[in-house]
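Entry for the shared binder. Reason: the reviewer on the internal report wants the predicted structure included alongside the sequence.
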Amino acid sequence: MLTVLCVQGCGSSASDDEKRPEPVPSAPYWGNRGYALPDGPFTREDTVVTATCNMGARYAGVDVQAWDPERWELLDTRNFFIPVDAAFTNYPGVQAVHSPLVELCGVTPDSPSPYAVDDLEYVTPRVRALFDLAYTRMAVVLRDADGRTTHAGYVESGGNADDFVRLSDAESDDEQNAVMAPDGRSVWFTYFTADGERRIGSRSTEGDHRLSDQGPATGHDLPLTVSGKPPHAVQADMVRLAPDGRRFTATAPKIYGHVFRTRASSGPLNAASGRTATLLNGCLGVVGWVDGERVLCRTQSGSFRTVNTRSGRAEGNAVAVIREDDGRVAEGMVVSADGERFIVSVHLPNDRSGGPLGLDDFRVVSTSGEGVAVPISADLLTDGTVFLEWR
């Protein structure tokens, strides 16, 4: 019965180690470790980063906040004003836009996600991709007045509603899924060529913003995640890079597997990718990497399990966050850097509200199931908050 817990030589006098060359990664980049980041709350270890969309009568913006995960004290906040032309919701009479910003700000019970799956294990990596590694810039999709032409752009943190950069003004642009490169020096997106070919492109945030074609795409229906140095994009869902950068988790329609090897070029997951992929048995959603060989999954039964990414088999006990008769669902967002804890949101099915009154219900849970779940209590967190990272 399954136990469920609630909660080489050379002829020199020098040593072989001194003469042996540095190991070369099997992928063209080693995660995102090649980037030098400024010191601050958003880049330090043992920090949790959240994003919350705020709406007012004349204001729309995203607050990105850094938290101490032990006391849940606020360490720092960065504000990103959303320009009036930015697509942060879809509504009748305009072209529907695929953008993680729409998912963060414009999804309600009456206005569904632009993507096929809106479980939080999918939402979190999509929204994280909007920002550079240091959370200084946020990618946006801008609509023209005709409601149909769309352009990639970005906003700087701390600016106002007029401080944004539109990277193209071509009348025929159809650029969607805008996300930031790790260093914030380019915005990547999906687009259609004049003859209707589906492609991935990027535009530098400096200079003339000329279009750089980066590879094939499947259209707009799947988001992008950009990582590595030099940067590459993968078009897929639930993309989470392994600690060593050699593999990543992902999912895409008609592609077999959950864990893939990183590649030297940008593009969507394809049949060739699937031939060497590992299928994680019973995994409904990947919450994050526990270590270099294991990930935490939400299972089809609603509990959470640690799964080996080589064998695809579950290890250890199942961790149940809520009772089977609770009437709500628990979805995972992030795993701590040490792999010992993770954060879940408990809410009504198909509604991220935390309860009948719409209150948020976030909990910190042990990945091993030991101990009890700890509620997260902070006034600035809402039922629309997305936990992006636990450094």
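Summary line for the report: Helices lie at 16-19, 100-105, 120-128, 271-275.
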